[in-house]
Amino acid sequence: MRILFISLGCDKNLVDTEVMLGMLASRGYQMTDDENEADIIVVNTCCFIHDAKEESIQNILEMAEYKKGGRLKALIVTGCLAQRYRQEVLEEIPEVDAVLGTASYDKILETIDQVLGGGTAVTMADVDILPQVETKRLVTTGGHFAYLKIAEGCDKHCTYCIIPKIRGSFRSVPMETLLDEARYLAEGGVKELILVAQETTLYGRDLYGRKMLPELLRELCKIEGIRWIRILYCYPEEITDELIKVMKEEKKICHYVDLPIQHANDEILKRMGRRTTKQELKDIIFKLRREIPDICIRTTLITGFPGETSRQHEELLEFVEEMEFDRLGVFTYSPEEDTPAASMPGQVEEEIKEERQAELMELQQEIAFGQAERMTGREVLVMIEGKIADENAYVGRTYRDAPNVDGLIFVNTEEELMSGDFARVQVSGAVDYDLIGGIVS
Do the beta carbons of residue 190 and residue 225 sit within 8 Å? Predict the structure, then answer.
């Protein structure tokens, strides 16, 4: 039996995919990336915003076409879209044989058995449970870096976000489980661990009565073979002095933090259900830069939130100009059904949202290009990602670059390097968001 997996959405969803792949591989299923060869296709979906929902539906519809050819025996839909729209998926796309919710991915083997036996399966566990899987996951990120999902769900209930309803309440993975998984990944050649969750900074509070991310980081730093540890999805109000201290003291922890702030106007932040004010955001950013001078700060913003005025947009522009974030992404507000923001008055026209997004990105482009130029002459440690065909050059990432969202560095050298190797590189220039450099002798 050959199985094709399509994993959509965030890196947290990718970890669920890798867990399912590990379970399937342990049963003897073979993996394929050719739809025409697949006996079973699994689409692990996302529905965080409208575009993600549309992408998920389109992928399901495309895969449904292969049911008509005869070879494909099972089409299974998992993940967030399956959790939220399970009945609609089964009714409107009859080619789908089974749906698994976000807390049911550990039932993938039983579901396949049921479908191959002629049944249709709807498997929906309580979204507040934490699936338990003994089988080791199958890493799909190339082997030299991997995501470590340290918690599931969220308790913040931001007014624009559906995640608590489809992913459940915040629940941490026990520390010993995470350390065992990290050791397994390191033994398999992983050199960079990227910690992910809906919110990493609250790790441990539900299990241990207090935030335990600093302790987890110190234990992860002891694992042989791990060179870099990167932390994503840190809510600004939850960053403690203890966490900053660990980042300063532990050499394996990248001086990089993903700090989603969403806006800078106090009224908008309050309507979003965020827990910070503009001044508090400034305070934590200034503190991070004061304590860790070479820190790289990534953030995300939402533009066109209901009721956002042109003046509030200008305030956000001024904030971005003042803060000079190293990395920044901007999303236009997407009204999601069953969220408080979707029914708020003052919904902003799509054209205005896009204009505001473009203004913010144009400003950030100037900031980012300038920062890239200022890297010229610096010596940096680079993780090699791969070789450029027919050239004596490689592509890699610095500590300032998370995979798939940030920039790259192109490294010229006659040396033979492998993906996952680390090299000292002197930056010689920049092209837009990316850097160019050569190996330091």
Answer: yes
